[in-house]
Every structure is written in structure tokens, then in C-alpha cells.
Amino acid sequence: MKQTIRVALAGNPNCGKSTIFNSLTGSRQKVANYPGVTVEKKTGTCRRGDLTFEIVDLPGTYGLTAYSLDEKITRDVILREDPDVVVNVLDASNLERNLYLTVQLMELDLPLVLAFNMSDVADAHGIVFDTQCLSRYFGAPIVRMVGHRNEGTEELVAAVTAVAGRAGAPREKLLRYAPELEAELEPIEAQVVRDEALRAAFRLGSGAEPPSRWLALKLLEQDTGVAAEVTRPELARAVEQAVSRIQARHGESPALLIADQRYGYISGACQEAVRNTAEIRHTISDKVDTVVTHRLFGMVIFLALMYGVFYLTFKLGEPMMRGLEHLFHALGHWVAVAWPAGRWLDLRSLLVDGVIAGVGGVLVFFPNIMLLFLGIAVLEYSGYMARAAFVLDRLMHRIGLHGKSFIPMLMGFGCTVPGILATRTLDSERNRLLTILVLPLMSCGARLTIYALLIPAFFPPALYTPMLWLVYLIGIGLAVIGVKLLGSTVFRGETPGLVIELPPYRLPTMQSVFLHMWERTWLYLRKAGTIILAVAAIMWALTTYPRKTDFTDGATIEQQRAEQMAYSMAGRMGHWMEPVLRPMGFDWRIGTALLGAVAAKEVVVAQLGVVLALGDVDEHSESVRVALRREYSPLTGFCLILFCLIGFPCAATVAAVRAETGRWKWALFQFAGLTLVAWVLTTVVYQVGSCILRLVG
Amino acid sequence: MTASEKKTEPVADRWLAELATGASGKVTGLAGGHGIQSRLIGLGIRPGVTLEVRRNDGRGPVVVAMGRARVALGRGMASQIRVA
Q1: Which of A188, A284, A680, B20 has its CA 20 to 30 A from that of A273?
Q2: What one-character DSSP code corresponds to residue A59?
Q3: Whole-angstrom distance, CA of residue A112 vs CA of residue A123
Q4: pTM value surpassing 0.80
Q5: Pick the residue with more confidence: A337 or A1?
Q6: B42:A100 CB<8 A
Q7: Residue A280 has what pLDDT?
Q8: Strand-pair category, B81-83 with B24-30
């Protein structure tokens, strides 16, 4: 017997697939990207005796068509991975709909195991299954499970092992279409066999040929993904003729007809093997929904929950953030003291001023980020996120997006990068790009550091909250305008509209919530360890070299540092940029600090401290605020906030946009576009503001 | 539906978006392109299925019930589904 069994988990969204994945693999999970595609590959292992199960968690999908990104990816992954067994997780309380994916998996001719999850809910609804009978219909063993109580996990493992042991056994064709469809399929299949290139394009990971019947079926369904790979004109013609014949005879597209017959097969099976002993009643979920999706209360509840999440993020995160700040401070200090006197001073400086200060400055936000993701995970797993999409759809529709786009934007308040990753759930390329392009306008946690430094520096305490609120609002407002503008110029076209299932509310399991939170937090930590580490080192070099040797007489250490800064590469770049910065009311010192924003927004804070000739600085240092107040007007302060809000998406964002859109074009377009907007807007605000101040003063 | 019409009488085809909260209808057809159709079908919204409108505020998305599933459809989507 094989030592390793490769398993893929497939299922509808909200079927409890990830809960089962978590209970199978526990913490033995890793998230990577598939080569070539920018999709997270969640894998995990599970051991029983000398057997190892390598489990891939596929995106939750309703089908395997080429019309939605998730479905296409799922299909490609199944083909590429060519797993030994596919476990199809189904919501047993909503069986017919869930079986639609099962039928499509059967067509791919892979060894299947069906996991009837949530069978407790099905029991409660009085649904009784004849699993043996269903098992015959779908050619797969059926395991009853209650994922959140970890029931049936061992039975599932046993069933997977048994099916893997039977690999290679011929499977009979269970689903036959109506004779007239089968008659059309046959000649297409014959042509598919002759189209080498087409079959090669869908070759399985193991090198085996994909089922030619499946390719024929997809072609008849007018699947764009498969049709694009057809090379023989005879095949293309055969498909075209078959489609028009069916269309003429039935007045319906073959795709609809095929879907109808799949559902017919499912209904037949269910009629024989499933009994509903209880009337479907309106559930508690429905009662909750009358309030939560209400036109008025829905919005109030949404705003309250968002407030709750932000409160959690900042109030609970604050003490932890302080602790980490002290820790990094102490670490830097310790290294500086413990360093052998007078040796490798540049290296010490790189370590203390570059790496520890730079990476540490980012890592201190790790508790806030973790708490934000915790809140979001709870909202997601409880089923609320789908309601949020519903509540906001009307609003989002007005600007030409739909409610689902709101979720990535919400995550953008934590960190832009996970927000960009979350756009994968959007079903149209247009909406996805639009959302990605305006996402950096949602003020992320890193930018909050800048605001936390600047607002108290220039404004009286009574204005702290209103100013912060205003800054966030300006970001949201600009995003709205951006979507409107781009949507009616670059991305013309209709938004395909919202389609989202509202799953019943459920209590999220601790394991799922924490794993989910950790997974996303890890992405953030990885960014700190890679991109930010590299950029911190570069920024350090730019501010350290070339070294100045002769300082003004009597200069203090701080003044010497300022002179060094002016003399360094970064300082010179700041000077070169001055003509561009002047209209916004910035001088070369601010320019030098802004260079850091390209690396990571929070670097601005540290850089300002250095250019203003002060010692160690974090965003709570009063000394920087005093210096800022002395050097600049509140108007300049506001302009700086405005510029940091809009301009220079950070390096991690640029990289994520490049990865997610697959093109440098969009990443650079976004970078240049936002920076240009920031410049124009800040200039206007500064110039108009100065005029008004002159008139008043 | 006007008061004079009886509930049991078959009503002429309408779009789902036109049904009021609480009303039910059987899907008779799907308009729109392949993309929209395949997404609706994947969710189980297909000819022959009975949908109950759980929420239709006259603006914004519509919530429908099919058995135990609840699906929110954007107004545009709900205007692609013919019901009787």
C-alpha cells in the first residue's frame, strides 16, 4: 500500500469544509501559492499509523465552470494535483444544491468520498438519508459528519484509505444524459481524442490524460476555458454545429439543458433516498435576519459591529503594542551596549538603527493586526459577513461595485495586503481590479502611526478624534470617487451584480477562528521579515552613506546626526525633490522622511525623528511633536497627513498587486496614479489653505 | 398582485425583483449571459424551482429562500430571473 495518500477537499462555500480541514490537520498546515497562479494553496498533513495524508483545501465553489475565478482555479488545481482521493464535503441539510458540485466532480472521473457534514442539523430538520442508496447513485462512500464537534473524522479517514486502496478500478458511468445529448456528445468526444494539444492542455499532474468525455461535455457547455485550448478546426466546427442544433431543437442553450439533467439525476436520487419528515420551518436565523438585514437597523448593527472591531483592535492592542515597543527598544539598547567597543561600527548601526528599528517598528503593530483579524474571523465564521455584503450592496451599487467588495476594503483598514488577497472572492475581474486599485485609500494600521504622531503635534486635543475621523473619511471618499471615475472610463461595463448565500448563523469554533487569524497574521509577519527587512537595510544605507567627517564646531550629537542626514544619499535626494515638494509646503527634510514611506508607511515616523535631529523616536515621543510644531505650520502638518494617506502605496502593496493581477502594469498604474493624486490634492489644499490663512491673518 | 386575483391562479411571468416580500414564485427562465446563468444554477436557482422572497425593500438586493438556503441577489440579478 502507498505510504502517502494525496487528498483534495472540495465543497460549496459554507459547507463547513475548513472546519473539517482543521480537525484533520490541526496545526500541521501551511499556506503557499500555486506556481503560476496567485492562489493560496492551503495544505496540511494528517498521520494514521504508517499512512500520511497530504490534504489540499480547495476554494469553496458551487461548480467547476470557467465563469468564476474560484471555480476555474479549483478545476485547474484538481487537474494539476491529480489527487488520489477527492473528498467532497456537503452540507447535509441542504443536500440537493450541494450535490450539483458532486455530479461535476464525478464527471472528472476521480475517486470520490462524500462527507455529509452538518448531519446534526439535518437530523434536527427531520431529514432521513438512505446513505447506501445515495452511495450507489454517486459512486462514492458516504460518511456522516458533524465537523464542529469533530464527529466522523476517523470514519472519513478510513473511507479515504479504502477508496485510495481501490485506485485504478474502473468506474462505471453513472450519469447518462438524455439520448439526444449523448448523441451529440459522441462525435465531439471522437474529435477530442484527435486533438492532442487540447488534451495536453488539461493533462493531469501525473501525466495521465483527462477524461475525453469531460472535455467534450465542457465544450458542449460552451466553457470558455476549454474552448480556448481547442486547436483542430474540425472540433470547433463540430461543437458549434451541435450547439446550434440543440439550441434550435430545445430553445435552450446546451449548458442549461445539461444543468437541468444533472439536477434531474440528483432529484431522482434524493426522491429515492432522502425523506423529509418535518416541514421546513422558519428558523432562528430567519428571525435574526429580519433585524440584521433590515434597511435601517441593518446599517446601525453594521456600524456598531465595525466600531466594536476597531475598539477591540486599538484598545486591547494598545498595551501589547507598548510592551513590544519597550522590548524592541531594549533589544536595540542591549545590542548597542554589548557591542565590542570601536569595532564594526557600521554593522552595529545597521543592526540597531536599520534592522531593529525598521523591522521592530512594523512588528509592534502585530497585536493590533492579530486582533483585527480575530474580529474579522469571528464575523466571517458566524455568517455575518454575508449579511454585511447584503446591507452594503445598495450603497456599493451606487458607485458601481457590489456589496462583496466591501469586505476586502474593510480588511484594508488593518493592512492593505490581506485586503488585496481577499478580493479573490469577487466574481468579476472588473470588480476585482477596481477594488484592488482603490484599496490603499483605506487607511491601514501602519498609516495610523503617522496620524498618531502628527495629529497631536499640530492640533488641540479636542480635535484629535474629529481629525482622525476626517482622515479616514477622506480616504473612503476618494475611494468612492476613484471607483466612479475608473468605472466609467478604464473599466466600462456593468457590474454582474451580487449573488451571495446567507448561511445560517452559527457559533464559530475556537479552532477555526484562531487558525484563520493566525494564517493571516503570519502573512503580515512574513512581510516584516522579508520586504521590510530588506527595505530597512536599504533606507539605513541611504541615510548613512556617504559619511560626513567634518561637522560644524560645537555641534551636539543630534545636530551632527542632522548634518549627516543632509549629507547622506537620502538627504541629497530630499534636496533634489524640493522643487516638487515646495508646492505642497514640504521641505527637503519631509522629503527625506517620505522616501521611507515607499518602504513601509511607518518608516516616515522614524525618519522624521532623525531628520529633525532627535534621538530615538517612536510615535509617542513628545520631543518630535515639539520639533514639528516649531518647524512647521498646522497646514503643513495636515498636508503631510493627506499625502501619506493617498500617495506612495508601500512596497508590500505594490508586490501584492503585481502578484494578484499578474501584471506589473496595474501595480505601477496604481503607484503612479495614487502618488499623482496625492500631489495634486495636497498642492491644492496647501495653496488654497495658505491663501485663506493670508486673508484671515 | 391585485386583491381581485386569487392566490391560486397562475400569474403571468414576472421578474423576481417585482415580487414583494413574502411572495413565492416558480422560476420559469433565466435571462442574461452564460456567466450569470451558470452562477445562478450553481446556487440551485434554475427553472422549476420555487423561490420565496424573504426580503424585497423595493431597492437594493433581494433575499430569496429555496428550502433551507437563503440567497441574496443583487437587484440586477433578480431582474434576470423570470418567475410565475
Answers
A1: A284
A2: P
A3: 24
A4: no
A5: A337
A6: yes
A7: 59
A8: antiparallel
Q: Long-range contacts: A604-612, Cβ < 8 Å, 24+? A: A604/A450, A604/A644, A605/A361, A605/A449, A605/A450, A605/A453, A606/A357, A606/A358, A606/A361, A607/A539, A607/A543, A607/A570, A608/A453, A610/A543, A610/A561, A610/A562, A610/A565, A611/A562, A611/A565, A611/A571, A611/A574, A612/A562
Q: How large is the average pLDDT for residues A241-251?
A: 90
Helix and strand numbers (H, E) in chain A are 34, 10
- CB-CB: which of B59, B66, B71 is closest to A499? B71
Q: What is the DSSP letter of A280?
A: -
Cell of residue A650, nine digits: 508601500
Integer distance in angstroms from the first to the last C-alpha of chain A? 87
Question: ∠ at Cα A604 (A371, A314), nearest 5°?
Answer: 20
3-state SS, residue A390 = helix
Which of B41, B71, B77 shows the shortest C-beta gap to A501?
B71
Whether the predicted pLDDT of A36 surpasses 50: no
Per the CB < 8 Å rule, is B59 touching A256? no
Q: Regarding beta strands A112-117 and A29-33, do their DSSP bridges make them parallel or antiparallel, or are they unpaired? A: unpaired
Considering only CA atoms, give the Rg of chain B.
12
What's the rounded Cα separation, in Å, for the pair A583 and A688? 11
Q: Does residue A429 surpass a pLDDT of 90?
A: no
Element (H, E) at A32: strand A29-33
- Could you give the percent of chain A with pLDDT greater than 70? 94
Residue-wise pLDDT tens digits, A392-425: 888 888 888 888 888 888 878 877 887 887 787 6
d(CA A356, CA A349): 10
Contacts B35 to A, Cβ<8 Å: 67-68, 496
Closest chain A residue to the Cα of B42, Cα to Cα = A62
A214-226 pLDDT per residue, tens:
999 999 998 888 9
- Give the whole-angstrom CA distance, residue A183 versus residue A545: 77
Let me know: does A591 contact A581? Beta carbons within 8 Å.
Answer: yes
Give mean pLDDT, residues A240-269: 90
- Residue B19's nearest CA partner among A84, B28, A696, A619 is B28
3-state helix, strand, coil in chain B (%, to 5): 20, 35, 45
For residue A52, the cross-strand partners are A4, A47
What ipTM does this complex have? 0.84
Nearest to A217 by CA among A236, A239, A200, A202: A239
CA–CA separation, A645 and A131 (whole Å) = 58
Closest B-chain CA to A122: B68
A465, three cell numbers = 478624534
Q: How far apart are CA A197 and CA A212, in angstroms?
A: 13
Best CA proximity match to A89, nearest among A164, A166, A157, A20: A20
Scan for cell 464559530, then name that residue. A508
How deeply is A1 buried, as exposed, middle or buried, from its count of CB atoms within 10 A (0-12, 13-18, 19+)? Answer: exposed
Q: List, for residues A470-511, the tens digit of each pLDDT value.
A: 998 899 899 999 998 998 888 876 666 788 888 888 888 888
Q: From the DSSP assignment, how many helices (H) and strands (E) are in chain B? A: 2, 6
Which residue type, as a one-letter code, is found at position A607?
Answer: Q
Q: Per this entry, what is the length of chain B?
A: 84
For residues A430-443, average pLDDT: 92
Query: What is the amino acid identity at position A370?
Result: M
Look-up of cell digits 479636542: A462
Task: Give the distance from residue B22's alpha carbon to the nearest chain A alpha carbon, in angstroms.
Answer: 12
Helix residue ranges per DSSP H, A528-599: 533-544, 557-567, 569-581, 588-599
Whether the pLDDT of residue A38 is over 60: the answer is no
Query: Distance (Å) from the C-alpha of residue B84 to the closest C-alpha of chain A?
Result: 18
Helix (H, G, I), strand (E, B) or coil at A156: helix
